[in-house]
Input
Amino acid sequence: FLLYAMDSYWHSRCLKCSCCQAQLGDIGTSCYTKSGMILCRNDYIRLFGNSGACSACGQSIPASELVMRAQGNVYHLKCFTCSTCRNRLVPGDRFHYINGSLFCEHDRPTALINGHLNSLQSNPLLPDQ
Output
């Protein structure tokens, strides 16, 4: 089998954690890369600890927690919400990121419709995949 990671194809036996040498295809569907290393989830958490602070609530986000990202900002899953209706945005939802605020497709500011502001649409990503 071939695995696709970090813009390359790998034999399943060749994609290994730099620390524990576990074959990453055998232990999950994600891998992490940092400081030139390819890591399993456990070693990434052990080496690099927290992944930062949530852009919405300001509280720290453990490295083991899944996050949402938009325009370089990181959010807890529960904090990735529309600024107007407070509904949670999930992967696949269309949203607008304007001046540091998130808006669902329904609640985007009306100026966007008239073309006065540029809308930045993005698909949320998971961390370091």
